[in-house]
Amino acid sequence: MSVTNFGDIGKTDGQTEAKFHTNKVNAGGLVFLPAVASRFALQGTVGDDVHATMARIASGKDGIMMGLRAVFLSLILFGICPANAAPQVLATLKPVHSLVAAVMAGAGSPELLIGGALSEHSYELKPSDARKLQAAALIFEIGPDMETYLSGALSSARAKVVVLEEAPGVRRQPARHGGLWGEDEDAHGPSDPHVWLDPQNAIAMTRAIAEALAHSDPEHAALYRANAAKRITELASLDQEIAATLAPVRTQPYLVFHDAYHYFEARYGLSAAGAITVSPERPVGARRIAALREAVLQGKAVCLFREPQFPPKLIETLDADTKIRVGVLDPLGAELAPGPTLYPTLMRHLAQSLAGCLRKNR
Ligand SMILES: [Zn+2]
């Protein structure tokens, strides 16, 4: 596989090199699962032939070809010319899908695996998902710590799999344990997989997405890189905007529903005190609820944030008891329509929700 240069797309600050899993093939910064298909080389060849033919026809020098000219032009108009087709791309989570959709704008649209308001942690593949996985030529995922449900399915998929948490420049945070973060070691892996909640990571991921697409679909490489450069500029200003929104509330302690926001909190210097649940799909024990109640009564948290995809029942127990203020944080865009704007909207909503709840001092 050829070496991919991530350096030419709008770098913003010092990037740290990510480590790579040893069971993956490292293709110059892109991480692919072994046994990938060679579908793209074939597509490229077919595309080149069609282009050459079209160029001859469009030139109009060959009288016999003149009649065919209109046919080819209508093929182009109706978008069924194989040379113009972007590869079939699948993104696992809404935030990943949003980053990919922005890079693909004008060439095609990625498919989304987990739509709606489903949890990123307790997902189970449906038969229609298996079809999407089989049809995809390129799959973008966070990584094996997040997409645990994909481990079996990907071994039979012919797609190239890009593991975005391992893209160059993505900075990782450890999973948190102890105190109000809980003691359960297997809730997440040793590293926190919610990497997209730092815009600097989103920038690094965008760069990796553009290079993976350019590598698989050289015909649209310039478009992918131009889209990525534009998006990176937007993400850098989004980062500054969020920092300004959160500056007044950085010292205010709060509790979250599950430990999804380490990246966001580290980026903006926030004072999260703990999480309600250690593992979103498991019930919270009475001892833990008592400890959280005590912490709230002692003023160790001024706000408590629930998540839209989980029922508010548990939060209501604490809320009724302690009169703590309650806000909503949505780390996945569960309630947002998928597409390029989902990511910046999701990040703005996080900032606004935190600032709104934490700003009101008692
Ligand atoms: Zn999570």
Structure description:
This protein is an alpha/beta fold and 362 residues long. The protein has 3 domains: 25-36 and 84-241, Nitrogenase molybdenum iron protein domain (Rossmann fold, 3-Layer(aba) Sandwich); 42-82, no CATH class; 243-359, Nitrogenase molybdenum iron protein domain (Rossmann fold). 41% of the residues lie in helices and 11% in strands. The chain has 11 helices and 10 strands. The strands form 3 sheets. The protein has a 4-stranded parallel β-sheet. The chain has a 4-stranded parallel β-sheet with strand order 8-7-9-10, with helices on both faces. Helix 8 (262-268) links the parallel strand 7 and strand 8 (271-277). Helix 6 runs antiparallel to helix 7. The radius of gyration is 23 Å and the shape is globular. The N and C termini lie far apart (60 Å). Mean pLDDT is 79; it is low at 1-61 and 74-82.
